[in-house]
Specification:
- With 501 residues, the protein is an alpha+beta fold.
- 50% of the residues lie in helices and 8% in strands.
- Helix 15 (301-316) runs parallel beside helix 20.
- Bound molecules: protoporphyrin IX containing FE.
């Protein structure tokens, strides 16, 4: 009996080992180079041990394979092709987009009716239609209309900081900027006040934080969903819990009703999102809510954290901060002591500082794609080894934006904060600067984000000097679990009101 059990166990183990081995042979059989890995955990064992984050692991693999156009790795049992050659990035994101139409993300319409309507997770004709609708909500003319609100909120941020300065001059700038972003999104997206500069935690901020920040109850589940979309299909995971969904739709409905009853036309994002849906049904409520929700899930932390990283770099690089302040003050004074839309948008050095901040700290450090149609690639650039690969439908692709942004081959002295590199005409290969992505699925909100960042930073830098403080951690230590580049303990700087100097 004992022998029989032993033989059965041995056969099961041998069979499992054979299956694992077959699977882990995936890249070797296709002639794709890559590091050796362990069964089950693949190349991500260190992530499970909590020693390294996913971005760190991809970045190290990227660096180790200098000269290779791509590298094959295993995210646990899933084969992933890590792209190194910018020409292949161009194929995936633009030229041969037909073979790579999907992001490697998933949300089920029956489980999460709001998030499943987000362009990030959609594909095919539905993606095209939702993307087009959202782009029209964020047209240059609509953003210009919203500028008045964004400018007012930025001024309120300055008053808020001024008040806080009576208690302390050491701040976590991510906290301040998240407050600003919620004010902007609540006003433009839901037609309500965020009240983030008045009370400690407003209802809208609570909702936004629960939705997407690392403090949210489900931060582990969110990370799991991002990194293993196929597994999360099995556990009915939803970003918008029933409670948040109900709250969200109820605020949205009451604002739209109030506007209708009072014949009010407000030129904001909410109005534009509701425009195509004259009939009010649950399905159309979801459609409108999904656009607004996108401001929270895609546009909140991304914009707030990017601004915080930029302020951190300005605190470390005083000469750059002074040069930027001179440009901002000149613009402010030229306009008779205010910031107007056109001139603020034209601030060149500010724009370069923003792009350089996003280059050094890309909010989406790895861009996940999935192959939708068979595709064969052989590099033509002699700087890469002459290897070819046939990518099959369903294969996961990783575009390691962070590693590419820190590759000295594309960005000289990559650890240095040098906005000037973004001021040289044609100085940057656009397939190596991936802060907002490129090609057909490029970020929909980049113009809106740039507008918020420009006016927010213009007010900040005009009024305050930022310096490193004893609490500043240098270099920054990113949260290894969180999929949006974040710093777990905040970004601490010292703030001084320039009028008190
Ligand atoms: C500094 C702020 C932001 C950064 C750095 C950023 C970055 C990105 C990146 C890297 C992508 C992936 C692009 C690709 O796959 O090629 C993306 C996609 C997207 N972003 Fe943003 N984003 C920002 C703000 C926003 C805002 C404010 C919104 C909404 C209003 C937004 C909405 C979206 C959407 C809907 C997509 C998916 C597009 C698609 O798949 O068709 N983003 N963003």
């Amino acid at each position: 009996m004992f022998l029989l059990i032993f033989a059965m166990l041995a056969s099961v183990i041998a069979f499992l080992y054979y299956l694992l081995h077959m699977k882990m042979d995936h890249w070797r059989k296709r002639g794709v180079p890559g590091p050796s890995c362990y069964p089950i955990v693949g190349n991500f064992g260190e992530m499970i041990m909590g020693r390294r984050g996913i971005n760190q692991i991809y970045s190290e693999i990227y660096r180790r394979y200098e000269g290779y156009p791509f590298v094959g790795v295993f995210k646990f049992m899933i084969p992933v092709l890590v792209v190194r050659d910018p020409d292949l990035i161009k194929c995936i994101m633009l030229k041969d987009f037909g073979s790579f139409q999907k992001n490697d993300m998933f949300a089920d319409k029956n489980v999460d009716p709001i998030f499943s309507r987000n362009p990030f997770v959609l594909e095919g004709s539905e993606w095209k239609a939702r993307r087009a609708e959202m782009i029209s909500c964020l047209s240059p003319a609509k953003i210009k209309d919203m500028f008045v609100t964004l400018e007012k909120n930025s001024r309120n941020m300055v008053h808020y900081i001024d008040k806080q300065l009576t208690n302390s001059n050491s701040f976590d700038v991510t906290d301040i900027l998240r407050r600003l972003l919620i004010e902007n999104i609540a006003a433009c997206g839901l037609g309500v006040e965020g009240k983030c500069f008045e009370q400690e935690i407003s209802e809208v901020k609570k909702m936004a934080d629960y939705l997407i920040t690392a403090e949210g109850l489900d931060s582990f589940l969110i990370a799991f969903w991002v990194h293993f979309p196929r597994f999360s299909k099995l556990c009915n995971f939803r970003i918008f819990t029933q409670e948040i969904e109900d709250k969200f739709i109820s605020i949205m409905r009451s604002t739209l009703k109030f506007r209708k009853d009072n014949n009010m036309v407000v030129n904001d994002f909410l109005q534009a999102a509701a425009q195509p849906y004259s009939e009010q049904t649950l399905s159309t409520d979801y459609d409108i809510a999904a656009h607004i929700a996108s401001l929270f899930t895609d546009g909140y932390l991304s914009t707030a954290n990017s601004m915080a990283f930029i302020l951190f770099e300005l605190a470390v690089n005083k000469d750059i901060q002074d040069k930027l302040r001179a440009e901002i003050i000149e613009c402010y004074e030229r306009n008779g002591g205010k910031f107007d839309y056109e001139d603020t948008m034209r601030l060149e050095y500010l724009e370069a500082c923003i792009h350089e901040g996003i280059r050094k700290h890309p909010i989406v450090p790895v861009i996940p794609k999935i192959c939708t149609e068979k595709f064969t690639y052989s590099p033509t650039n002699p700087e890469y080894k002459n290897l070819s690969v046939t990518i099959e439908p369903g294969t996961s692709i990783c575009i390691p934006a962070y590693a590419i942004h820190h590759d000295p081959k594309f960005f000289e002295d990559p650890e240095k904060f040098m906005p000037e590199r973004f001021m040289i005409k044609n100085g940057i290969n656009k397939y190596t600067y991936l802060g907002f992505g490129v090609g057909h699925r490029m970020c929909i909100g980049s113009r809106f984000a740039m507008t918020q960042m420009k006016i927010g930073l213009a007010h900040f830098i005009k009024n305050f000097e930022v310096k490193t403080s004893p609490k500043t951690r240098y270099p920054l230590k990113y949260d290894p679990w969180y999929f949006v580049l974040s710093v777990r303990d905040g970004i601490w700087v010292e703030i001084q009101n320039l009028q008190d100097k």
